[in-house]
């Protein structure tokens, strides 16, 4: 089934896209946005125009191959804009599109909440592991 | 430079948790929250107290094993509360903790943004594939 057909199957009474439905194309986009490297890449590009290697340093731990795949998926979904300068050697910059900015904004809100509440999370882990004798 | 880094430069106190640092435990929690099944599980539990099989029907496509692993990780991080009733057969309910509610709220904001902007995403995919003769 094509993405358009999957979208058509969802009739007009329901919201047209639903990440909870397994064939809905919105689920794939959510995965690109929230995936391990997708979320960090969008976060790193928030407010920054970066070259590939700058981005790779910022997203600590990502391989060249994974960052490249992540950027292609985000570019294809219209969230990241790739601009190759006609220089020698070629210089390629990445930046968020307007839609990418909106998505990254929500994502950063989530990231900041998680970072800020880690003491509670670590306490919960300690209780969970303690109750199981780990 | 991220906002967190900028803040550090100003007041000199290192932010204690940073998802961009590969060893920071906040990265693991972000992955539990935003992972393929974690995000849908938190979304499904938002405002609902559900049994395992109800949850499995809502999160279309998840296997029993993956849902079980996802729930354990979210319970360990203090985002989901598991309550076993002493009935025969035993009945187990899952619901969000207060922190889980906050996280799910941010996540649902992101999900709704993605669902609402899928027409733009699909247009972008069409242009991307067209430019590459796909």
From TrEMBL, chains A, B:
PROSITE patterns: HTH_HXLR. It holds the Pfam family HxlR. The keyword DNA repair does not apply. Keywords: DNA-binding, Transcription, Transcription regulation. It comes from the Bacteria. Gene3D superfamilies: Winged helix-like DNA-binding domain superfamily/Winged helix DNA-binding domain. GO terms for molecular function: DNA binding. Residues 24-122 form the HTH hxlR-type domain. This is DNA-binding HxlR family transcriptional regulator. The lineage of its organism: Bacteria, Bacillati, Actinomycetota, Actinomycetes, Kitasatosporales.
């Amino acid at each position: 089934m094509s993405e358009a057909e999957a979208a058509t199957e969802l009739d007009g009474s329901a919201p047209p896209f639903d990440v909870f439905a397994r064939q809905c194309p919105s689920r794939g986009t959510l995965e690109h946005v929230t995936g391990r490297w997708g979320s960090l890449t969008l976060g790193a590009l928030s407010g920054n125009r970066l070259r590939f290697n700058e981005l790779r340093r910022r997203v600590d731990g990502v391989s060249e191959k994974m960052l490249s795949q992540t950027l292609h998926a985000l570019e294809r979904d219209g969230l990241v804009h790739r601009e190759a300068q006609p220089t020698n050697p070629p210089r390629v910059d990445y930046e968020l599109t307007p839609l990418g900015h909106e998505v990254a904004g929500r994502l950063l809100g989530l990231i900041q909440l998680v970072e800020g509440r880690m003491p509670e999370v670590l306490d919960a882990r300690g209780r969970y592991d303690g109750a199981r004798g780990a």
